[in-house]
Amino acid sequence: MANPLDIAASAMNAQMMRLNTVASNMANSESVAGSEAEAYRSRQTVFSTVLDQQREVAGVAVSGVVESNAPIMKRYEPGHPQADIDGYIYGSNVNTMEEMANMMSASRSFQNNAEVFSTTKTLMLRTLQLGQQ
């Protein structure tokens, strides 16, 4: 049987990566660029399940970070210092509402796994105390 502490810890690490990605997206939500290729694209973490029965290891891993295919916002601002030759600037494709929901979900998942970690630790300590009596 896999160690529940390892499972909870791996899930907490994965959620921290998700929170960091959300923070990066939020920080770049208002950024602009001079071309569509240079514009910031929203990033999302991709999780995968880890299950190795021979080593009795289980948990969650971050298998990668992918960029969103959502369209880049294009605005006509000929006086902007980063405007292209036609007067357009290109904003990020970050949806701040989706990112806030993603942040709340990741935060709650982290809290749940921290509670699992704490409860498992408490139960293990109580089990050890039974043997001392």
TrEMBL record:
UniProt-listed PROSITE patterns: FLAGELLA_BB_ROD
Boundaries of every Flagellar basal-body/hook protein C-terminal domain copy: 86-130
Record domain Flagellar basal body rod protein N-terminal: where: 5-29
Major localisation: other
Subcellular localization(s) per the UniProt record: Bacterial flagellum basal body
Pfam families, sorted: Flg_bb_rod (PF00460), Flg_bbr_C (PF06429)
Key words, A-Z: Bacterial flagellum, Cell projection, Cilium, Flagellum
Coiled-coil boundaries: none
Protein family (similarity comment): Belongs to the flagella basal body rod proteins family.
Subunit structure: The basal body constitutes a major portion of the flagellar organelle and consists of four rings (L,P,S, and M) mounted on a central rod. The rod consists of about 26 subunits of FlgG in the distal portion, and FlgB, FlgC and FlgF are thought to build up the proximal portion of the rod with about 6 subunits each.
Name assigned to this protein: Flagellar basal-body rod protein FlgC
